[in-house]
Amino acid sequence: MIHLHGEFVAAAYIIFALALLWDYFAPRFEYRKTLRNILLRARRTK
Amino acid sequence: MKALIIWFNTTGSPPNFERYAARWIPIWFVLAFVCLLIGTAGGLFMVPADSKQGEIFRIIYIHVPAAWMSLFVFIVMAAQAFIALVWRIKICEILTIACAHIGLMFTAVTLITGSIWGKPTWGAWWTWDPRLTSELVLLFIYLGIIGLYNAIEDRRSAARAAAFLVLIGLINVPIVHFSVTWWNTLHQGETIRIVGESKMATELMWPLIVMTLATKFWFLGSVLQRARTMNLAHEANKDWAKKLAESKQ
């Protein structure tokens, strides 16, 4: 008898997608934050 | 060889690395997204269900590439760590730590998806099987490398200390790989071989190859993006970083 286990398959793919999304966006936000900090520091020292 | 050394030194300079990363990141991510779409569609909808496992086998199309990446990233990270320790190239120190975050992500995905597959197949979310345990140790090593790097204030000393830990942790890579051969395990043995005949049916194989390619392209894009961010943070006081920040305003 073949079981579907659709919820297990869906859960695994959702976790994979969430991990990739975090890995894609987290460094991008950090990069923008760093650029903003550099600008603010440059303006303060002017 | 001389041209390679010149390329390595030129690309390794922080402003050049920023330009190089900016050019290549979109290319690797586009390739990764295309392969992910094709591989996921193939794995979920196109290939037939496995005759013994049924639909649950479709998890292998993410579990296996993630598991391969957890080891592959560690080997790349160890190569970077070795170069960073021997030749003290700054960009290699940064790449080592960038690799650790991606390796951690793939190892976590491997363990979680494996656990989800294990519940309906083995009847348990977790078992202290040699393959599972050594993969969990790999996760702790990745966490240890990131933790050690963040615990030391001076970035260059932190990177060197983390690089030492990477080289010590390398011993776990063959243990994970050969755990299914060296010990009697619940985890299945080697199914897919680069050299020799694989035990997996050919018609089920193609999404796995596409997803493997996707994770490799993803790694290239992600490691450049993470290293680019760290590189900019390290060079925040330099003129090129200020000019870059102003140009992106």
Kindly list the characteristics that best describe this protein.
heterodimer, A: 46 residues, mainly alpha, 1 helix, B: 78% helix, globular
Task: Describe, in plain words, how this protein is organized in 3D.
The complex is a heterodimer of chains A (46) and B (249). Chain A contains 1 helix and no strands. Chain A has one helix at residues 6-45. Chain A is mainly α. Chain B has a domain at 65-193 and 205-231. The relative contact order of chain B is 0.17. By secondary structure, chain B is mostly helical. The mean pLDDT of chain B is 91. The chains are: A mainly alpha (46), B mainly alpha (249). The interface between A and B is medium-sized, with 29 and 40 residues.
List the SSEs and their pairings.
The complex is a heterodimer of chains A (46) and B (249).
Chain A: H1 6-45
Chain B: H1 2-12, H2 14-46, H3 60-87, H4 90-122, H5 130-151, H6 155-169, H7 172-182, H8 202-234, H9 239-247
Helix pairs in contact in B: 2-8, 3-4, 3-6, 3-8, 4-5, 4-6, 4-8, 5-6, 5-7
| Unreliable segments of 5+ consecutive residues of chain A | none
One letter per element, helices H and strands E, the order of chain B comes to: HHHHHHHHH
* Broad shape of chain A: rod-shaped
Computed CA radius of gyration of chain A, to the nearest angstrom: 21 Å
Sheet with most strands of chain A:
none
Brief overview, please?
The complex is a heterodimer of chains A (46) and B (249). With 46 residues, chain A is mainly α.
